[in-house]
Amino acid sequence: MTEPKSKSETISETTKSYLNEVFIEHKYGRKKEISSKYITKGLKVEEDSITLFSRLSKKFYKKNEDRLINEYVCGTPDLYEGENIQNASLIIDIKSSYDIHTFFGQTNKKLNQMYYWQLQGYMWLTGAKSSVLAYCLVNTPDTIIKDEKRRLAWKMGLIDDVDQDYVNACAEIDKNSIYDDIPMSERVRSFVIYRDDESIEKLKARIVDCREYLKETFNL
Question: Would you say 79 and 88 are in contact if contact means Cβ atoms under 8 Å apart?
């Protein structure tokens, strides 16, 4: 939903780049792999974040596995309240922060617009009238911590782990990766987003523009 810089354009250059990747994936079966330590942790700790959110909410939430689709959008909401995912009253999307710095870095920032549109799409798919975007701070898995320490040793040119500077740095890595000493109530930050039918209509119109771009660019 990024607005184009030129008034003569209907979609932004960022959107065009993404659509080009979509075309390559569907036409030629080549998917551009995007990986980082942030994505890796997010995938590995998803259940831990859901458990944290459930405990704090005093409600049991189970990860939704049903992928929903309509004429325009598709998606798999993380959690929901209601009779079923197709008739949800509330959608909850969980974001696992990489560390305490990125977690509290959200404090003074405006709501990430990418997540706003994501949750509008989920509410469109489910019929929900409201949603919650929940940032969770949970412990980093031991495998990721060990990888961080190995990278540090390589950067320092070490062949053993007895260097005191390295030992001290590893202690800092541990401290920045484990958060059991912080109360649960301080490890979840939530934003409520309400369904906006006008925004959904804008989303629908932009998707039509995207489809036109794909047709014109790739002769579909």
Answer: no
Tokens encoding 4: 């184009």
Range of the domain at 76: 43-139+179-203
Q: Is residue 147 part of a domain?
A: no
State how far Cα 5 lies from the chain centre: 26
**34 inside domain:** no
pTM, two decimal places: 0.91
**What are the pLDDT tens digits along the chain (220 aa)?**
888 888 788 999 999 999 999 999 999 999 988 778 889 999 999 999 999 999 999 999 999 999 999 999 999 999 999 999 999 999 999 999 999 999 998 767 788 899 999 999 999 999 999 999 999 999 999 999 999 999 999 998 887 667 888 999 999 999 999 999 999 999 999 999 999 999 999 999 999 999 999 999 999 8
CATH of the domain at 199: 3.90.320.10
